[in-house]
Automatic annotation (TrEMBL):
Region of interest (Disordered), residue spans: 36-95
Leader peptide range in chain numbering: none
Matches recorded under SMART domains: zf-3CxxC (SM01328)
Domain of life: Eukaryota
Residue ranges with Low complexity bias: 60-85
Any coiled-coil regions, as ranges: none
Keywords: Metal-binding, Zinc, Zinc-finger
Name the record gives this protein: 3CxxC-type domain-containing protein
Membrane-spanning parts: none
Domain 3CxxC-type: 132-230
Example of a GO MF term: zinc ion binding
């Protein structure tokens, strides 16, 4: 109860702040619950003013797995002297999320498990399963070059019973924070491992036979649980 009251008071303090003051808050000075409230308030204000620069200058596009590629603009070969060249508009930036759902993999999962439907609704499931997957992160703060690999990306798979007999499901994959600046990371998950975990759990819920998961040995950075937005309980 005391924690809830403290969160309410802190949220009211954030609401009273001017946007520059809110954006200037240093995450390392706050507790994990307070960091989440700060993120939520920044996201709320960024959405309310879509044409304004976001709170922590984050990158929208998914990171490349190995190298950053720099694109150059060349002049037109159809008699252009250079003066008529158009400048590329900078890509929009947005605040990253605390967790993600990867509906784009549903078709591939559906090919392995029949009678399932993806649910994008974020609510408690009739059954839930906690697991970890593998992936990498780039820090969302453009002033920081933080990058790390993780073998413990917390994933919550949820089951929803349906009246039509099909099995509804989703999987929330939780982000992690940068060790250097505490900003949220932009994740790039291992598709194979993600699908393997989700498919296996759906088959178990449907009463279908499954094989044991293979042992995976992949070098990753040391796990920092305090920087994770979710972890197995």
């Amino acid at each position: 109860m005391a924690g809830t009251t403290a969160d309410t008071i802190f949220r009211q303090q954030l609401l009273a702040m001017a946007r520059p003051e809110l954006n200037a808050l240093r995450m390392e000075n706050y507790t994990r619950p307070q960091r989440r409230l700060i993120d939520e308030e920044r996201v709320r204000r960024a959405r309310a003013q879509p044409n304004s620069p976001p709170a922590n200058n984050t990158i929208q596009q998914e990171p490349q797995q190995q190298h950053h590629q720099h694109q150059t603009t060349t002049g037109s070969s159809a008699g252009a002297s250079g003066s008529g060249q158009s400048k590329r508009k900078p890509k929009r930036r947005e605040t990253p999320k605390i967790h993600y759902m990867f509906e784009k993999y549903h078709k591939k999962i559906e090919a392995q498990v029949q009678g399932i439907l993806f649910s994008s609704v974020d609510r408690e499931g009739d059954a839930e399963w906690e697991t970890n997957i593998i992936g990498e992160f780039n820090c969302s703060n453009r002033r920081c070059k933080g990058r790390w690999h993780s073998g413990k990306i917390f994933t919550l798979i949820r089951k929803y019973n349906r009246a039509d007999g099909q099995l509804g499901y989703n999987a929330q994959v939780y982000s992690q924070r940068c060790l250097d600046c505490d900003s949220l990371g932009v994740m790039n998950i291992d598709e194979k491992i993600y699908m393997e975990r989700v498919v296996r759990r759906l088959k178990i819920w449907k009463g279908e036979p499954v094989e044991d998961l293979p042992d995976i040995y992949k070098k990753t950075d040391e796990h920092e649980e305090e920087l994770c937005e979710g972890s197995i309980t």
